[in-house]
Amino acid sequence: MAGYDDRDGMIWMDGKMVDWRAANVHVLSHAMHYASSVFEGERAYNGKIFKSREHSERLHFSAGELDFQIPYTVDEIEAAKAEVLATAGLRDAYLRAIAWRGAGPDMGVASARNPVHLAIAAWEWGAYYGDAKTKGAKLDISKWKRPSPETIPVHAKAAGLYMICTTSKHAAEAKGCSDALFMDYRGYVAEATGANIFFVKDGEVHTPLADCFLNGLTRQTVIGMLKERNVTVHERHIMPEEMEGFQQCWLTGTAAEVTPVGMIGDYTFEVGALTRDIGAAYEQLVRS
Predict the structure, then answer these.
(1) Whole-number pLDDT of residue 129
(2) Would you name the residues annotated as active-site residues?
(3) How many angstroms separate the Cα of 174 from the Cα of each of 42, 92, 101, 170?
(4) What percent of the chain has pLDDT over 70?
(5) How many CB atoms lie within 10 A of CB 95?
(6) Strands 48-49 and 204-208
(7) Residues 6+ apart with CB under 8 A from 171
(8) Is the predicted pLDDT of residue 256 greater than 90, yes or no?
(9) Are the C-beta atoms of residues 55 and 103 closer than 8 Å to each other?
């Protein structure tokens, strides 16, 4: 498949559809130098974007956390996403909406006078972890930690927060793993590079408290599904050594959907009944 810069199609950019290959930004865009960028990853199933409005609202929230305002309302973003899907003729697709500070009068840390841009693209994208959705993903344990909320806007979906995700995933892939697991700044289990994590022990579910990382929309959805099934869910701080006692494990995220985990470092997990059930139920929900 061609690189993401060399494809046929159209991308919505600042209010109009432009040719895919022409959707470019200036090299002195503030976002490139200072990471003043926020984004959303979304999936459409049967022509409908799952949790679409919640994603658009979170995009606005994330921009506010980085001290800039997107020049399009949530309703306008919703309309633009619909236009992107229709133009591409896609029903099952991944969408990426991204907002950033561009090039302008300021070229330093401060950038209040620079314009804010918005772009939305969509493409076909299968399982994020490949055959791990049936066999179980293998995770490395990252050397990096999720930072304290006192150091960075941890609840924004901001590009800069993914720097350690990229380096951690590269290290994991070099070891033959699908992804990496972060601990947080206190040493508790946190999340994977682009997905939240759940564990099962004796029929009850344990998931890290999202107090220093993104509380994913898929995470929230799955917690709701579990509670509807009368499954006890513990949102709490989890020590790394507790992983030895967990029987099942899965990841959640818009890209990851619900992906079982078979191994984290030296810890192993079965792809058990609850993992399979919640994965199948999520698949049914997003296509309903």
Answers:
(1) 86
(2) 157
(3) 28, 31, 34, 6
(4) 100
(5) 24
(6) unpaired
(7) 140, 142, 143, 180
(8) yes
(9) no
Q: What is the mean pLDDT of residues 7-23?
A: 98
Q: What type of residue is 186?
A: R
Q: Quickly count: other Cβ atoms within 10 Å of residue 221's Cβ.
A: 18
Say which residue the tokens 């697709």 belong to: 93
How far apart CA 112 and CA 193 sit, in angstroms, is 30
Residues 6+ apart with CB under 8 A from 5: 21
What does DSSP assign to residue 22?
G
pLDDT computed for residue 1 by the predictor? 67
Residue in 102, 28, 107 with CA at minimum distance from that of residue 70: 102
SS3 20: helix
C-alpha to C-alpha distance for 276 and 272, rounded to whole angstroms:
6
Q: In angstroms, how far is CA 214 from the centroid of its own chain?
A: 9
H helices present in the chain, as ranges: 30-34, 52-65, 74-88, 132-135, 163-174, 217-228, 273-286
- pLDDT tens, 117-147? 999 999 999 888 888 877 899 999 999 999 9
Residue 196 amino acid letter: N
> What residues does 147 pair with on adjacent strands?
none
